[in-house]
């Protein structure tokens, strides 16, 4: 793994200040320290420093095989081919809106090995921004460097309000196009140009591992020089106060969303952020999926309860 080619960094102190401010706002929140024996504090420290972190071998091998089979089934049933833009990859199969393609995919955003870390980074009222597969086929060239939140017009660096969690459904190797990462670039003040040449680190990991990165981290899909496909699912989360990349309330048929586990329904936007954002006619939209115990809206909370995210059902 090579490091170097540092991006233009702005004062890191600024970043720290913004981050501290967010923690103060979240006062009263339970600190999540462990998920499945994973030391979340240590992982979080790596994530803050580098802008990415790998959790190795945390997904059950049976689930990895099941996801792979399902990706192949959806691709076959829908006669899917390669994408037709350079950014998406002309030797790449991408399946968007995966949650609408069957219950196997419902397990991904709420998996106990990954969700606690996402909650720690974004807070417990986070959302699923998108769930899609990215299958790099042999011959796929390197993707342009980019940051996932580069279209959001907020000065950088800033606290993470988007977080990608890529599930390796096959081994990720330098040869098969493992995601290329620019360590520390989440603290940069600018964005990469698409034709920029930079030293990168390959996010190598065995199948069944996950790679998290901060939405501001500069990264790109690699060049698949192998003879095999590189399978992954990109489970992208965002904070509860910004727009999801995929419009899940319209993209997932309501009758399907009704069958989701409750936590997945909340993550897909059938919830309110801080008891305000996302309400429908002064009520928690979880009620539209037949749930009766939605959270109290901000107007029903006392001042002290204002920052309590799940203030419980109305009395
Ligand atoms: O395929 C990868 O490794 C990363 C893809 C990516 O960053 C994207 O499509 O936005």
UniProtKB/TrEMBL annotation:
Its cofactor is Fe(2+). InterPro entries: Phytyl_CoA_dOase-like. Keywords: Dioxygenase, Oxidoreductase. Signal peptide: none annotated. One of its GO terms (molecular function) is 2-oxoglutarate-dependent dioxygenase activity. The keyword Transport does not apply. PANTHER family: ECTOINE DIOXYGENASE, PHYTANOYL-COA DIOXYGENASE DOMAIN CONTAINING 1. This is Phytanoyl-CoA dioxygenase.
């Amino acid at each position: 793994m090579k490091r170097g080619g540092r991006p233009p960094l702005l004062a890191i102190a600024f970043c720290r200040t913004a981050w501290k401010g967010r923690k103060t706002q979240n006062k009263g929140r339970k600190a999540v320290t462990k998920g499945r024996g994973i030391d979340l504090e240590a992982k979080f420290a790596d994530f803050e420093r580098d802008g990415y972190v790998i959790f190795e071998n945390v997904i059950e091998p049976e689930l990895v095989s099941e996801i792979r089979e399902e990706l192949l089934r959806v691709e076959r049933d829908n006669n899917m081919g390669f994408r037709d833009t350079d950014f998406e990859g002309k030797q790449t199969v991408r399946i968007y809106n995966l949650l609408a393609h069957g219950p196997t995919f419902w397990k991904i955003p709420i998996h106990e090995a990954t969700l606690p870390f996402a909650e720690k980074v974004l807070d417990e009222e986070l959302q699923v921004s998108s769930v899609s597969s990215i299958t790099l086929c042999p011959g796929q060239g390197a993707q342009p460097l980019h940051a996932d939140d580069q279209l959001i017009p907020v000065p950088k660096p800033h606290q993470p309000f988007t977080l990608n969690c890529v599930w390796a459904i096959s081994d990720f190797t330098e040869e098969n196009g493992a995601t290329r990462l620019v360590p520390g670039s989440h603290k940069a003040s600018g964005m990469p140009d698409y034709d920029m040449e930079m030293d990168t680190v390959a996010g190598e990991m065995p199948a069944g591992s996950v790679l998290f990165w901060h939405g501001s981290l500069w990264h790109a899909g690699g060049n698949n020089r192998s003879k095999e496909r590189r399978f992954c699912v990109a489970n992208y989360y965002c904070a509860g106060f910004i727009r999801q990349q995929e419009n899940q309330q319209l993209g997932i048929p309501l009758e399907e969303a009704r069958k989701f586990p409750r936590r997945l329904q909340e993550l897909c936007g059938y919830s309110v952020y801080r008891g305000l954002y996302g309400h429908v006619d002064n009520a928690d939209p979880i009620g539209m999926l037949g749930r009766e115990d939605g959270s109290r809206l901000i107007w029903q909370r006392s001042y002290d309860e204002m920052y309590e995210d799940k203030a419980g059902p109305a009395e």
